[in-house]
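Please, structure for the following, as tokens.
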Amino acid sequence: MTTAIIDLGTNTCNLLIAETGNGKYQILYQGKEAVRLGDGSINQNKISGKAIERTVIALKHHQETIGKYQVGEVKAIATSAVRTAKNQDEFIKRILKETGLAVEVISDNREAELIYKGVILAFGNLPENSLSLDIGGGSNELIISGNEGIKWKGSFPAGMSRVINRFHISDPIKEKEVNNLVSYFEDVHEAAWEMCSQYPGDTLIGCSGAFDTIADIIDQVDPGKKVRVNQKIELEDFREVYRQLLFSTKTERGGMKGMDPVRVELIVPAVILINSLLEKTGITEIFQTDYALREGVLFESFGNNPLI
């Protein structure tokens, strides 16, 4: 069977088309469209009219792609920006009317669970007390797990779109602003840091998004050109990218090899969060994976037993 999975995130609308059968899967297509649900209205918990228009256009583009494959089922899932939107009903009804797609808005716990399942699909076996982190536009999901399953999971409404709309960030960012962000991230994610102390581990698994951009910059490849089920990021390589991004202007970041245009502004607070996490936990190794929520949905299509 061929399934299309649409992950309607805060910044991008991601499409995955995969064929499944006989306990195996093959990814046929991956792509994304910028929707920027997290524009200036996100901290008022509202999806702007322009963002709705962008989403309709993005979904219609994805439907054109889906039409090129013999897809048996289309699943459309929305996360943080839609989950917290006061005009959620209006948004969902507009999408249904314009595209015929019934969008499922999932809870924060469900989002973290699907991200974990995407990680399992990518890695199979996980080191003890691995910490998975998905940095989103609306929320950040953190999951502590091992081969026996999830030990703890949490979702925090401090995604990078919310951050850049809440804080003034100079171009380039100033030291005081970095310190303010570090304090903010520590306060918001305090429960996560406490659980990392309770379940200490050595491994950080960075899911999609900002981690894809970091890996692309390290590998010096254009965004989306290199598919990675999982790849190790050396700590020194991360620190070098961190320093490079921290002292750069938006114009300089826009010209960097590997920089996704969607993340030119979002990447700076994202790497500050990652660096803060590393300093808080003492984690010694980082892995990046393209796999996240939509691959978690694919995982479930196997009945939770995909080639593992």
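DSSP finds twelve helices and eleven strands in the chain. The mean pLDDT is 94.
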